[in-house]
Amino acid sequence: MKILKLSALSLFIIASTGMLTSVAAAEAALVDFDCQIKFAGRHQIEVTAVAKAEGLGGSEALTHTLIRYDGQRIKDLRVKGQDGRPVEFQLGLEHRVLRLKSPVSSSRPPGNPDLTYTIEYKIETMSDEPLRIPLPVPDLRARPGKRAVHISVSLPEGEVATVDSFPSFTGQGPARVYIDLANVPSFIRLQSRRSVSWIDQFIAVSNLNDAIIVALIIFGTLVWEFKYKAQAR
Amino acid sequence: MAGVSVTFLLVLVVYFFVILCIGVFGFRHTSTEEDFLTAGRTIGPWVGGAVLAATQISAGTFVGTVGRHYATGVSWVWVWPGLWCGWLISAIFVAPKLREFGAVTIPDFLAFRFNSQLVRALSALLIIFGYMILLVAQYQACGEIFQAIFGIEPIYSMLLLMLSTLVYTILGGVRSSSYIDFLQTLIMISGLLMAIPILTYHTGGIEIVGEYLHSLDSRLTGWWYNWKQILGFSLAFGLTMAAAPYEMVRFYSMRDKATVRNAIGVCFLFQAIIGGAVMTIGLIMRMLFPNLSSADQASSIMALGLLPPITGSLFLVAMISAIMSTVNSILIVTASGLSHDIYGKLINPQASEQLKLFLNRASVFILGAMPVWFALQRYTDVQAIVVIEARFIASFFFVPIVMGLNSRVGTSAGAVSSMLGGFLGCLLWSIWGGYYYPNIDAVEVGIAVSALLYFLVSRFTAPVPEQVLRLCSANRISECRRKRS
């Protein structure tokens, strides 16, 4: 029996270590992503994203994707390298995705493992609400467990954000909302109003969802309890 | 974040309080080993169906499958029909017969059917081996969830999972875990159903999600995997499900044969809802966050950042409870392999009920702690580990269990060589064969070797005594036990 036990343990160790493929070693990563969004009027938004990456190769072209929503136009797109000078880029357009490819890492001084670059653009939108603002998503992953993505939105004058925005902004200042995330979202969905009454807050989609789910669980538990008692009788 | 965390902690505390109450209830109603392992055979079809769904819907589903859909798109959904075929095979050829048979564990059945204690020992060891791999996936998933929520090191969350699951497994065995599973399934389905409208509301519609994903990478809405790969995955999951010891042990706890069949039907319903929901969530999350640091964190990030506080917290609790449910089922099966099949039947058949119950609980503790180290290594993604486990279980159990229940062909030597051959075939093909012939899946090789050896060796070795076969075909294990004693 001891032999059987030992064989099982050995087989377990050999098979588990041999079978499971090892994950790739260190790779290029997004260290910091700071995105400022400003309203320059009701239908014009300015986006400035400053990103810091590490582990990139010297001449690698870095790709960013931007989601395209109907009724929006992205214009005045610019990419600035480490030294603050404009860097050339290529744009590829598919139905809902705009691909921005730029050899931005070549702007980095020799010997520096980190790269900081900036992407700026303006969005013209025809629609009023809800407003979805595309963000440049780099083809780089953030390190797990860190909140390296910071998004800040300066709202149109006199407006406040409702609770149904995406992502759910955790911070709110005067005419400004912000959030720290672990990954870059493809857009933010902003719903803002001149004023938000308590009724607006109460009937927000998120609150209604919470109410429905609690009701569902209570209903399910009662049905179960009723059935259990009926069986017991 | 702070608001969500406080709500999450509150929901978590309430949930674990309920679990503890159910555990104590189970403990007070568990006095024998049979009570611990089969809940006195009292579970009905609705609770039974929810239990089957909750046992199968594990971290592999909530974390791994959502992650797989996130990374590879729609095509992974074709694995589900394969899985359901496995359930059908189980409903027709395996589950009702096994329930009627009345055994306590799978090695119990195999040992009686093939009239061999070697078959018992080997099957118990293979169960432990296979499910240790699945436990690694559960622990790793738990680490991913907690890292996404709190940013804490995976070791702490794994230890928390280990301790909390051990408490309710050790306390109540199958009785308490069955009722906890019912509650978990309810939460899971409510959480999933609530998540989809909210996500769709943010994106602007399912149509836009499809268009965006197609523009991002056309394989996401088409075929990421080719049909041979899908067939391999489907076979691995389907055949495992048809002969999965940790699902089968749930059949033993149901009232009768009819209840087993009805419970499988109920389980189908739950799975269809959950399967469709996890795919939709994976796809929408890819649109919302196209480049996550780990695909396995998609569901946790959704719960934390997108869902309303209570819904999000319940969803996270449902994920954690899905992991706990699977860990609990696996621990019951593997611990019974050690204490019931190896110690109770082979080493000390005269052991008292109290001693066997104590050993069951001690085995749960030991086996629950072992896989933590492997999970910390993060060898690959959660779903990939689940696939590896499925391949092994199908390779060494499908043939002897299905044939043993449905045919008079098969000897003790045939069963032993079938299990060993299936195991080695799958192992060697995974290590070497797959490298040269990537289109042939390890499970196909494992099953083929297992079936070939089963028939070939059975043809040339001493058959099982006619008397045992007659009793087995009449599905009367109790009579068989009496005659033997």
Question: Would you give an account of this structure?
Answer:
The complex is a heterodimer of chains A (233) and B (485). Chain A has helices spanning 2-19, 198-202, 205-232; strands at residues 29-39, 44-54, 62-67, 72-80, 90-93, 97-102, 114-125, 131-134, 137-138, 141-142, 149-154, 160-161, 171-173, 176-181, 187-190, 192-193. Chain A has 233 residues and is of the alpha+beta class. The mean pLDDT of chain B is 81. Chains A and B meet through helix 1, strand 9, strand 10 and helix 3 of A and helix 1, helix 7, helix 8, helix 9 and helix 14 of B.
Summarize the helices and strands and which ones pair or pack.
The complex is a heterodimer of chains A (233) and B (485).
Chain A lengths: L1 H18 L9 E11 L4 E11 L7 E6 L4 E9 L9 E4 L3 E6 L11 E12 L5 E4 L2 E2 L2 E2 L6 E6 L5 E2 L9 E3 L2 E6 L5 E4 L1 E2 L4 H5 L2 H28 L1
Parallel strand pairs in A: 1-10, 1-11
Antiparallel strand pairs in A: 1-2, 2-7, 3-6, 3-9, 4-7, 5-6, 8-15, 11-14, 12-16, 13-14
Chain B lengths: L1 H27 L4 H6 L6 H12 L2 H14 L6 H23 L4 H9 L2 H34 L3 H50 L2 H11 L10 H16 L2 H8 L4 H32 L9 H8 L3 H39 L5 H17 L2 H5 L5 H25 L5 H25 L5 H19 L5 H8 L3 H8 L1
Helix pairs in contact in B: 1-8, 1-14, 3-8, 3-11, 3-12, 4-7, 4-12, 4-14, 4-17, 5-10, 5-12, 5-17, 6-7, 7-8, 7-13, 7-14, 7-17, 7-18, 8-12, 8-14, 8-15, 9-12, 10-17, 11-14, 13-14, 14-15, 17-18, 17-19, 18-19
